[in-house]
Amino acid sequence: MRPALDIRAHLDTRGAAILMAISLLLIVAFAALGGLVQPAFMPDATSDVEVSVIVLSLPLSLIIPIITVMMIAGEWSDGSIQNTFLQRPGRGGVLASKVIAAIVVIAVLVLLSIGLAAVATWIGGDLIGDGARFDSLEDVFTTQLAGLAAVLLFSLAMGLALQSTVLGLLAAIGFPFVIATASGVAMITGSETVVDVVRALDLQTASVALADGTAGAFELIPLVLLVILPAAYGAWRWNHREVG
């Protein structure tokens, strides 16, 4: 496994450099929006780190699938995976290396985002508003970080299963939006069957329940259906798919 090589190979391309630059600009802009502007809208003129992270989660929910799917499936889409397999014959090792590389890049981006959110919250609360609140930091780990981890796992699974940048992005970005919309429709219908079906496909809600320790056996269903099974199929396909 050579995850450092995969990270360098991904970041060396012009498209990845532009994407990373835009991603960093969005993260800085949303961190400033969440931390600095927040006191103007809060009744007590304070800045809460949890609200800052919630605001930052909006761009991260798009950035994480794009980077993850491109790192996993990008070489299948442009045909360069053939050269990679010629230089590194062990397909399983290449797959594991790319998964580790994607996790490392996303982890760095998320940690950077939380750090910027904390700094912006401190500046907005203590220097501009009437105080900064960091007592909700624990909730950040059980809600926002759990949700972002779910986005990463689902994106990895879609990149592996579909091995196509376009299809992977459509699934990784589009499916959570469909489920969020379906959750609202299910609540309106009041049908327990419909609610349970949507709940069985709602990885975001299940991830939060798993993180805060309130999950039951039902919350494992989205993890199995949307992460474990697609990833297992993707790993099998990765090792058996013809190249060229």
UniProtKB/TrEMBL annotation:
Regions crossing the membrane: 16-41, 53-74, 95-123, 143-162, 169-188, 208-236
Keyword Amino-acid biosynthesis among record annotations: no
UniProt key word NADP: no
UniProt keyword list: Membrane, Transmembrane, Transmembrane helix
Protein's UniProt name: ABC-type transport system involved in multi-copper enzyme maturation permease subunit
Originating organism: Brachybacterium fresconis
